[in-house]
Design goal:
The structure holds two protein chains of two kinds. By secondary structure, chain A is of the alpha+beta class. In chain A, 37% of the residues lie in helices and 34% in strands. The longest helix of chain A is centred in the middle third of the chain and has 22 residues. In chain B, helix 2 packs parallel to helix 3. The chains are: A alpha+beta, B alpha/beta.
Amino acid sequence: MNLNAAVREAIHISEDEMARHVIKATKEVFSTMVMMDLEDSFPLQESVNHFHCSVSGMVGMAGTYTGILSIHCPQSFALRITSNMLGMDVEEVGEDVNDALGEIANMLGGHVKMVLSKGGTDINLSIPTVISGEEYSINAMAESDCVVVPFTHEDEKFLVSLKLRKE
Amino acid sequence: MANVLIVDDSSTMRKIISRSLRQAGLAVDDIYEAGDGIEGLSVLGSKSVHLVLSDINMPNMDGLEFIKQVRGNGNGVPIVMITTEGGEDIINEAIASGASASIKKPFTPDQLNEKLGGLI
């Protein structure tokens, strides 16, 4: 699993460098908007497509590059994230959690968009999509064109995934 | 004291911006919220607003069209874009359409103070 070769050649960036952009963006979003400091781990060698009791926020990119930026976290951590962002206790996965995870995906997608396109007009971000459930799978694009970074906050773990290819 | 309109399709982001405005110590009175440009135009038509903070990427009516409509209505209220869309071309288009400034998400209350202090 690695960054798509055509993407690497087009923007002269390695998989490690792209992973560092994802890490920097995620830590910045969480420290300023969620009030959480994160620890990152080495990017995974395999894509993760099946989730259990989780929430996934995703934003699509279309244009010169096509892709999906997604954040996948356990429902318990999604509730903590949302509670921190709203400044109040949120106890059920619902509209507030969907909105919070979607907005995090949107901010991360915006950061990646700026890495890929300085002008910003040749890539469009979609309105965020959020799914959650006891058991679900997400399959999109080639499994190999993917960077997946695990993060931890205290005892909670979550993933940020970037699937990307050049059109 | 200024009345502020926040236009963003994310209710979470509207709450964060609202809270950050208070934390930044800005002279803010009433804060109104709208979920897209259409709702934003409706609020501007019925409330006294001294500053608008608007996202760009929204359903129904995006931030760029919203600015054009506001200016087309002859309303000169300062509009600051708060957006993940940090590309120079998009920001330049927003400024050319009548936006006063832009703030990139994520942001801190201090950054809001720095950008908005001269407008409130």
